[in-house]
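ok trying this again, last paste got cut off
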Amino acid sequence: MKTILVASPKGGVGKTTIATQLAAHSAIEGHATVLVDADPQGSAIRWAERRSDMDTAVLPVDGTRKSWLRQVPEDATRIIIDGRAGAMPKDLEKFLEHADAVLIPVAPSALDIEATVPFINALSAHPAVKKGRLPLALVGNKLKPWMRTSQEAISLLQSWGLPLAGQVRDSQSYVLLTGLGRSLFDYHSSAVRQHQEDWLPLLRWLYQ
């Protein structure tokens, strides 16, 4: 069982987008996939519920409850956890003890970048991270590669000493897909192919 925690100290950085896209990809690849929603807003749960009639459905689990782990079936092979917005590592302990990797989405704004620094510092002090058992990676999200602000943000993130495992460009498609319970990986047209390619480095980092 592979468990991935998507976490950020800031809301609005696309945490749920990352979590739902990864969950859909896992299900499409044939994995029994669970999406744990630790955010009281429940956006990830609603996404999974809209997907419930598909062959590649994802099982939603309420991660705000202490009993969340008991809701995960024994035959689950992938667990994606959408961490609560604004949570610091001490608030995520019940997930960190089960995670195999932590993804930290960062949007290209000064406020988002500044808020992420103490979060990473606190995560780096976690025993599992210090001992090398729990890898961390950054995901540049909501990027506009043609704009200087995004280019500067990418350069800064690359200097932090953590892998920049993915660079996902900004697109309103993600808002639409979330509302439909769908993902980029559910489609095969040339229109989505370029966006799908954004995810390949991140998928390689997670699964290879």
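PB: full thing came through this time. Strands lie at 2-6, 33-37, 59-62, 78-82, 101-106, 136-143, 164-169.
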